[in-house]
Amino acid sequence: VSKQCINPSDSNYKRLAKFFAKATYKGECLEYRSNKFTNYIHLKNPPTEYFTVKSTFLHRFVYAVWYDTPLKNTDVIMHTCDNRICISPRHLQLGTIQSNNADRTRKQRGKKQG
């Protein structure tokens, strides 16, 4: 993953680099597999410029730091690749609950109806 919008001397970038180093490419996706079912991370020293919480999903952390974008609790980070463990910044986009639901419906993902 090439850097675009981040400062390599930033401590958050160093955190990102550690996650990227542990991830592997599967096709065009950069997959991070944690020991747990989900990629939920606990931040000992949360980057307060991005989050007000001490834990978050890894893809939210990647998006916030990579694009230098503070996230509200209501912001949704969508995977354009539909791979929940992908942390490639190129596959992440900012959305809303409504746009995420519309994307799910359009792609016929999620709970089956009927």
UniProtKB/TrEMBL annotation:
InterPro entries named among the record's database cross-references: His-Me_finger_sf (IPR044925), Homing_endonuclease_His-Me (IPR044930)
Molecular function via GO: endonuclease activity
Matches recorded under Gene3D superfamilies: Homing Intron 3 (I-ppo) Encoded Endonuclease, Chain A
Residues forming coiled coils: none
Protein name as catalogued: HNH nuclease domain-containing protein
Organism: marine metagenome
Organism phylogeny: unclassified sequences, metagenomes, ecological metagenomes
